[in-house]
Amino acid sequence: MRWPRQLMSLLFVLAFLVGPPVVLLTVIGPPLRGWPTTDQLRAWLQQPLTEETLTAGLAIGAWLIWLLVAYTVAVRIIVRLRATTAWLRRVPLPTPLQATASGMAGAAVFGVATNTVTTPPEPPQPVLTGTATLHDETAPDDHRDQAGREDGVTVAGGWLPRDVAEQVTAAAALVWLRRRRDYQPHPTHPDDTDLTPLPPTVTAVQAALADTPSAPPSDGSTTPFAALPVGGVGLTGPGTLPIGRGLLVTAILAGQRPSSTSLIVTKATLALLLGPAAETLGRRLPLTIVDTIDEAAQLLQPDGPATEESSPGQRPDELSSGPNHRTIVLLNEHDGDEEQLTQLAATGTATAALLVVLGKRPDGPNWHANSTGHLHDPHHPIMPSPRLCVLDQTAATDLLSVIARPAPPPPHTATEPPLHPYTGSPDVPLPRQVDRPRPQRLHRTPQQQLHLRILGDPQLLIDDEPLAIRRSASLQVLVFLAIHSNGANTAQLTDAIWPGLPRRSLTGRLYTALSDLRSTIRTASDLPVIDHADDRYRLSPKHIDVDLWNLHATIHQAAAALTHTAAAWQTVLDAYPADLATTRTWPWLDPHREATRRRIIDLCAALAAKEPDPHRSLQLLQDGISIDPHNADLHGLASGALTALGHPQTAAEL
């Protein structure tokens, strides 16, 4: 406990501040008893070193030392008071609506009953991590209408509205689901290239929304295009291209809804927005790419040509015509002359299409776009300024890469599933038995047992009692080091936990998280859990046991089993109660979670291939499907096994 040491320190400081003055005043008296007279000065000059002058000099020196200590203590107290005052200023005050609701609730409580009602303190709100942070331009003391708030996510390359950020997060989740579906448990190359982490901008958006409550899903009726004039607009100003990229991403995301939005863009405009990535990325995006605005005008005609004939080599999506469908045409001012732009605008107005020109539009309204994404109508300066998504080339390319259709995977020809190498802690011994009912802990200490469980809900157990870890970053550090058993340096930890932010601004955060984690563990155990050497942090395998390490050892032992495959597989199932940190949505977890899951289904396919009993082989495949119900290859293998056993109907249902 810290409070006894703090109390002793406080008593020592008080004794040092009060004791010396009392002793000096009692024994010697005050350092000066008035100003010296002329005779006293003359006598001191004639004989400066006397017993009286030496005593006075020592007393003055003692008083000066005491004054220096008192000054230091006073400065420390002032600094602490200023820090406390600054913290109190940052505490969010209730809004008028919240204050009114609290007052009504209090009146109701005191009016209904005279009993004292006590409530537990409100838990601290989750802190957003990473380079992306929720952005709200309305300060706490701003009395503007709450509806005027601009909630969104700020990333290194721009700003996204909240609903767009949530759609990006959903698209990122679909990428991992697609990878799970397409993975084959018998790959040709054991290094899973499709486990590459998602682009930094995507992980930054995920990190910003990871620990925040999700808003109700949008029905698509409040898209940013509703803020633009009917028929379209021309955009001028420094934010033209960043807003153009934001409109491109927003329109493609909105187009994922059936009969919602379709996008037509010229090839030159796409190259202007995305740069070198336009050629390769454009083919995989759900949009229609045209060479000229005349082709765009033909596509807008009700009896226009089929979109498959629009541009050779491109893959334009079919333009639907549902009741809520909207066609958006995105081009720049150099795509055509004034007459062509006017004709396209007339066609768009007749077909309720929205024409957005990145540059001056000769025949329609032109709004000024600033670098923050705000639009201003010069003819109505007092009108509200809508804010649209703004992105640079890197951020736009990152976001579009998770929306685009994946490239076809290379064909796999291997028939025997190669197993992944053992990646557990090198200091952890392999279990001796395979047919044990549950994996035993590999390290035991006579005093205390520290066990880190990261399969399922991450928890640190000390003598089987969970220890509460207050900071999300501290828990992430613990889980990250458990996954990377050989340790991680400062850059790897900060890049994972706070993606995208400059490392120089994150060292303090990491040290704070580590200090809080060590302090939390120290209150319940004196064992050193985290080792630090040569700028690498590592969990000490001598003092902590990790269930993931046990799982790796169990898989390695089961893969080497030539007989008793049923017992070996059951041991693995017992050691894998749930996915890696299944209750957490930290972006850096996805590759490791999928890699761990793949080790399980790889072993499942290998044991099923070696199992001579077809019924037992089918049971193994069904167990694998229960672990990863999205994997299509396991379904195919199980369907083939069912057909071979004479159950074609069950195979078809599967």
Explain what you see.
Residues 134-149 have a biased composition (Basic and acidic residues). One of its GO terms (biological process) is regulation of DNA-templated transcription. GO terms for molecular function: DNA binding. InterPro entries: AfsR-DnrI-RedD_regulator, WH-like_DNA-bd_sf. Keywords: DNA-binding, Membrane, Transmembrane, Transmembrane helix. By secondary structure, this protein is an alpha/beta fold. Among the domains are: 1-33 and 54-82; 229-403, Rossmann fold, CATH 3.40.50; 417-610, Arc Repressor Mutant, subunit A (Orthogonal Bundle), CATH 1.10.10. 46% of the residues lie in helices and 10% in strands. It is built from 21 helices and 18 strands. The strands form four sheets. A seven-stranded mixed sheet has the order 6-5-7-8-4-9-10, with helices on both faces. Strands 1-2-3-11 form a four-stranded antiparallel sheet. Strands 14-13-12-18 form a four-stranded mixed sheet. The longest helix has 40 residues, at 51-90. It is flat, with a radius of gyration of 34 Å. The two termini are 59 Å apart.
- Overall SS class: alpha/beta
Question: How far apart lie the N and C ends?
Answer: 59 Å
CATH topology of the domain at 417-610: Arc Repressor Mutant, subunit A
Main sheet: strand order: 6-5-7-8-4-9-10
Helix proportion: 40-55%
Keywords for this entry:
alpha/beta; Rossmann fold; DNA-binding transcriptional activator of the SARP family; 21 helices; Arc Repressor Mutant, subunit A; WH-like_DNA-bd_sf; 4-stranded antiparallel β-sheet; flat; transmembrane helix; single chain; DNA-binding; 654 residues; 7-stranded mixed β-sheet
